[in-house]
Amino acid sequence: MQVYLDNAATTAIDPEVFEAMKPYMLNHYGNPSSIHTHGRQARSAIEQARKKVADLLNTSPAEIFFTSGGTEADNTAIKCTLQSGNFQQVITSKIEHHAVLHTLQHLERTDNITIKYVNLDPNGSINFDHLQELLTINGPALVSLMHANNEIGNLTDIKRVGEICHEHQSIFHSDTVQAIAHYAHDLQEIDVHCMVGSAHKFHGPKGAGFLYIKAEHKISPFIHGGAQERNMRGGTENVIGIVGLAKAMEIACQNMEDHHQHIQGLKTLMIEKLKSKIPGVQFNGLSDCADNSLYTILNVSLPPADDNEMLLFNLDISGISASGGSACSSGSNVGSHVLTELGADPDRGSVRFSFSKFNTEEEVDYTVQKVAELYQVKA
Ligand code: PLP
Predict the structure, then answer these.
(1) pLDDT tens-digit profile of 208-257?
(2) Which residues are CB-neighbours of 331 under 8 A, at least 6 positions away?
(3) What are the tens digits of pLDDT across the range 315-340?
(4) Residues 118, 145: contact at Cβ < 8 Å?
(5) Residue 175: CB within 6 Å of ligand 1?
């Protein structure tokens, strides 16, 4: 049996999304900047996609900019905010995705920005009192805090972060890559200046994402060399990817409640089965806590064993694709900065299982069975 449980790394394209993209691969191939019919067809598809994304986020199309994905959108939000504003100070957490952390650490070296890290509670939750304290003591800053952690699934109350930032005249950027199209984001309710999405995390194509920039938050262009994206991002647009992104987001948002229930059901089933079959199993962060954790991610901490470093390899041999850390580091041997920050025991084996609407109970049964077999062999 082949089981794909690495949906936080990337998801399968939904066949309906593929159908929506196909005409733009085969027939409507015009350059959206051309003024003839072929060009106008492509331009119209981009603007319809922009309107769709904006409607789903309850905001204006003028605030949506298409990018090559989450990493570019995070880089842009951070670099352009710091270049355009008077901020030299950034507040973030040590468990952000590298698209945020490495960007900030680079700017710390090249642009003399100061980074302050907000304290985390032992389970990885943001300590809001410390965030308030940092802003009170140090004054306005760019605050970059993610909505849903890509390794342990912890959810942060971004509405509350937005309110705190507003109180302190600060700019709020949120890496929402793992949460967009899995939770409703109403931008009339959340006080955020920049927010990002990536199509391949919700059954859309790879290489297509977006950056929301609040109208009042004026930043300079991200890529020079063309008038595309209203002079903000030069370069011929990825029409096929943009069409796929909007379609995938539409499907996800229309069926959000059903998908949520189905996937949460699989995650709960896996938690129960693992607990019943593997004595000493634990869950990293808030992973097993239904209300405060992304329903698509379960980060399992398995008891110490000699060949724990072979865990993912052994699962792979059994046909199960999962991850041992951040999506972007899967395949590499670099340890997880998130689990290290949480003080996780390095002798325990950590596996991130991440689910999608395409997974089944049978796949969960099979996976738990294989994990249990691996542990019986070791015992
Ligand atoms: N931010 C988070 C939280 C992610 O999980 C990822 C991808 O794993 C990214 C950013 C990067 O997104 P992309 O792969 O679209 O560049």
Answers:
(1) 999 999 999 999 999 999 999 999 999 999 999 999 999 999 999 999 99
(2) none
(3) 999 999 999 853 334 444 568 999 99
(4) yes
(5) yes
**Looking at residue 301, which CATH number applies to its domain?**
3.90.1150.10
138 within domain boundaries: yes
Residue 5 lies in a domain: no
Dist. CA 179 → ligand 1 center (Å): 11
Looking at every residue in the chain, the average pLDDT score rounds to 94
Report how far residue 173's alpha carbon sits from residue 146's, in angstroms, rounded to the nearest whole number: 8
Q: Are residues 95 and 240 in the same domain?
A: yes
Which atom from ligand 1 is nearest to the alpha carbon of 326?
A: 8
- Reply yes or no on whether 328 is catalytic: yes
Question: For residue 166, how far is its CA from the centre of ligand 1 (angstroms)?
Answer: 26
Together in a domain, 368 and 227: no
**CB contact set of 144 (below 8 Å; sequence gap of 6+):** 77, 78, 90, 91, 92, 96, 100, 104, 172, 173, 174, 175
Catalytic residue, chosen from 80, 194, 289, 328, is 328
What DSSP letter does each residue of 247-271 carry, written as one string? HHHHHHHHTHHHHHHHHHHHHHHHH
Q: Report how far residue 14's alpha carbon sits from residue 365's, in angstroms, rounded to the nearest whole number.
A: 24
- Residue 146 Cα to ligand 1 middle (Å): 11
Cα separation of 374 and 104, whole Å? 40
For the stretch 181-215, pLDDT in tens is 999 999 999 999 999 999 999 999 999 999 999 99
Q: Which of 254, 280, 304 is the last residue of a domain?
A: 254
Q: How many structural domains is the chain composed of?
A: 2
Domain membership of residue 20 (yes or no) is yes
Contact (CB, 8 A) for 354 and 297:
yes
What is the rounded distance in angstroms from the CA atom of residue 52 to the CA atom of residue 56? Answer: 6
Q: Closest ligand 1 atom, CA of 9?
A: 8
Q: Is the CB of 150 under 6 A from ligand 1?
A: yes
Relative to beta strand 142-144, strand 89-92 is parallel
- Domain extent for 264: 256-378
Rg (CA), the chain: 21
